[in-house]
Design brief:
Number of helices: 10
Shape: globular
Strand order of the largest sheet: 3-2-1-4-5-7-6
Helix content: 25-40%
CATH superfamily: Vaccinia Virus protein VP39
CATH class: Alpha Beta
CATH topology: Rossmann fold
Largest sheet: 7 strands, mixed
Distance between the termini: 47 Å
Order of helices and strands: HHHEHEHEEHEHHHEHE
C-alpha cells in the first residue's frame, strides 16, 4: 500500500465513504430523487424542454434512469448556451444553442420544462422564468432542482469563494467533486431560496405543487475525513429534523403553469434579440 492509499484509507475519500455508509445508510443521491420526480410527469405524450441541459441529464452512474426518461417522452429538446457541452450530450438528440433569457421556441411548445442545477447560473431569473412560462402550455409543469442558499456550503460558495483566486477554487472543486474546469460555470444565486423562487415564479403564473429540500450525496470536503465527519453529522441532522431540513443542500420544486394567474407572458422573445440558434 502506497502513501496515497494509506492517506485515503485513514484520512481521505475511502474513510469518508465508510463513514457515509455507516452514518447515512438510507441516503439517496439528490440527482436520483430529482430524476424520479421528473419521471412522474413524463409519458408518451410529453413534449419536454430541458433548459441549461449541459452535457448530461442527471449525474454519473444514472445512465439507465436517463435513458428511461428520454425514451418515455414523445419529444425531448435540450437548450444550453455552451456549444461544447451540447456537442457531447449523452442522451438528448434534439439540441439547440440558446439562452434561458431568450428561448428560441414558439409559445406553448412544451408541456414540461426542467432546470437541473441551472437556476444558480441565471443572471436575470425573472426574465428566464418568464421565458419558461412562454414555453409552457396551460397546465404544464416546471421542475427546478438548484442549490439552496440556506445551506452552509452553498452560502460559502456564494460569499467566501468570490474572494479566493479562481485557480484555487477550481482545484478545490476538482478534489471534492471531480469536475474539470470546462464543467464549472459562473454562479449568481439570485433565486436560490424557496421564498425567492415562490416570489419570482408566482408573478409569472406558476403555482407550487411540490417542494423538498434534499441532502447532498456526499460531504463537500470528502477528501479530508475529519472535516467530512462533521458534515456527515450535519447531514444526519438535516435528514432527521424537520427544522434543520431547510438547511439541506438543494431545492427541488414542481410548479404548475396557470396563465390565469398572470397578466401576460411578460417575456416574449425580443425581435432583435440577436440570438444565435443552431441545432447540434
Amino acid at each position: 500500500m502506497n502513501l496515497r492509499q494509506l492517506w485515503s484509507n485513514i484520512f481521505g475519500k475511502r474513510m469518508t465513504y465508510r463513514l457515509v455508509r455507516l452514518l447515512l445508510p438510507d441516503l439517496v443521491w439528490n440527482q436520483e430523487i430529482y430524476g424520479s420526480v421528473v419521471r412522474r410527469y413524463v409519458n408518451e405524450k410529453t413534449k419536454w424542454l430541458d433548459v441549461g441541459c449541459g452535457w448530461r441529464m442527471l449525474g454519473e452512474d444514472l445512465e439507465p434512469m436517463e435513458e428511461d426518461l428520454v425514451t418515455s417522452a414523445a419529444t425531448v429538446v435540450g437548450c444550453d448556451m455552451d456549444f461544447h457541452s451540447l456537442r457531447k450530450h449523452r442522451n438528448i438528440r434534439k439540441l439547440v444553442l440558446g439562452s434561458a433569457q431568450a428561448l428560441p421556441f414558439q409559445e406553448r411548445s412544451f408541456d414540461l420544462v426542467t432546470c437541473n442545477m441551472v437556476v444558480e447560473h441565471l443572471s436575470d431569473p425573472g426574465q428566464s422564468f418568464a421565458q419558461m412560462a412562454r414555453m409552457l402550455s396551460p397546465g404544464g409543469r416546471l421542475i427546478l432542482h438548484t442549490p439552496n442558499l440556506w445551506n452552509y456550503a452553498v452560502f460559502m460558495n456564494h460569499t467566501i469563494a468570490r474572494l479566493v483566486p479562481r485557480k484555487f477554487l477550481l482545484r478545490l472543486i476538482k478534489l471534492a467533486d471531480n469536475r474539470g474546469e470546462d464543467d464549472v460555470f459562473i454562479t449568481f444565486y439570485r433565486a436560490n431560496t424557496t421564498r425567492r423562487l415562490l416570489e419570482i415564479c408566482g408573478k409569472r403564473g406558476f403555482q407550487e405543487e411540490f417542494r423538498r429540500i434534499l441532502i447532498p450525496p456526499q460531504p463537500f470536503f470528502n477528501f479530508f475525513a475529519p472535516l467530512a465527519f462533521l458534515q456527515i453529522l450535519f447531514m444526519r441532522l438535516c435528514m432527521s429534523s424537520h427544522y434543520f431540513r431547510r438547511f439541506g443542500s438543494t431545492i427541488l420544486m414542481v410548479f404548475k403553469y396557470s396563465p390565469a394567474h398572470t397578466g401576460s407572458f411578460g417575456g416574449a422573445l425580443p425581435a432583435d434579440a440577436g440570438l444565435q440558434t443552431t441545432t447540434v
